[in-house]
Design brief:
It is a single chain. Helix 1 crosses helix 4, helix 2 runs antiparallel to helix 3 and helix 2 packs parallel to helix 5. The chain is built from five helices and no strands. The chain has one domain. It is globular and about 40 Å long. It is mainly alpha-helical.
Length: about 120
Amino acid sequence: MQTIPLRTSHARSFLFISLAVSLSACGGDAAGLDEDDVIDREVFIAAYVDLRAAALSTDDGKLTDEARVEVLSRHGASEADVLNFAEYHARNLPFMRVLWDEIEVLLEAKQPMMDDPGDR
């Protein structure tokens, strides 16, 4: 199996969130979401880390729609929940920077497990 360097996947993730931030910045008041409409920070982080880890464990670095739904459902979240979280917090750049730093640390901690073929 080919290992995708975390820095590369993190860069892709950052690019995705940057796009989400840009789009939501054009959308006005956090896309009209209330805080009650947004999943908890911990749920977002856990779901996102598990999504990236699952994707990095595949041969092509991609998840099927079914796999994505399965990972998200383990966290009681949906794709819309993850996107709503990103939209809601998009303008709070210090919050998002700390969030992505934490996600990067968690992914780096999982890297040895993802590289060990005995764990799959």
